[in-house]
Write a structure and sequence with these properties.
4 helices; elongated
Length: 107
């Protein structure tokens, strides 16, 4: 006897009646880097590559955007990850004598 093929459509009511609660997608937050007029561009690029895994080109573009517009988006993540990344970047920067400002914005 062959197993039944998987259903293409999730029936939320049937799942709930069996005690399974359908999961919602987590809300996402953008991690924003703010210009501070002190931190050098090459350090911003370094941070973007180290913590947000950007390519060299993407890191240069984002760092330039921060320098010219005052704000750059580093990535979009679920809240816990976004908060952790922002905190790690701030701690890393402060330990090296730079005072960066970062924020989270709900997407």
């Amino acid at each position: 006897m062959k197993p039944e093929p998987p259903q293409n459509r999730r029936d939320d009511e049937a799942l709930v009646s069996r005690g399974v609660v359908p999961l919602e997608k987590p809300r996402t937050y953008g991690v924003l880097l703010h210009r501070d007029n002190q931190t050098p561009l090459n350090f911003l690029e370094h941070l973007l590559r180290k913590f947000f895994y950007m390519s060299g080109h993407a890191a240069r573009h984002t760092a330039s955007q921060v320098q010219h517009t005052g704000l750059g988006i580093c990535g979009v993540y679920p809240y816990d990850i976004a908060e952790t990344k922002a905190s790690e970047v701030i701690d890393y920067s402060q330990a090296r004598g730079w005072s960066l400002s970062m924020s989270l914005e709900r997407q």
